[in-house]
Amino acid sequence: MQLRIRDVREDHDLTQQQVAQYLLCDQSLYSKYERGERDVPLNIMIKLAQFYVTSIDYLVGLTEEKKPYR
Length: 70
Description:
By secondary structure, the protein is mainly α. Helices cover 56% and strands 0% of the residues. The radius of gyration is 11 Å and the shape is globular.
């Protein structure tokens, strides 16, 4: 499954370091999430969805709708 976390981060003009700081993790770990070398834990996906004001379904490619669910 191709995650959109890199695309969304780039759309927001953020660096991996900035997102990693928000997630309280190391930049190298976050980089592995983006490259698909490590599975992203659910709690991290929730934080990313909240940070980008979108849904987890959008981040994982299950929908094209960027808006979060009500």
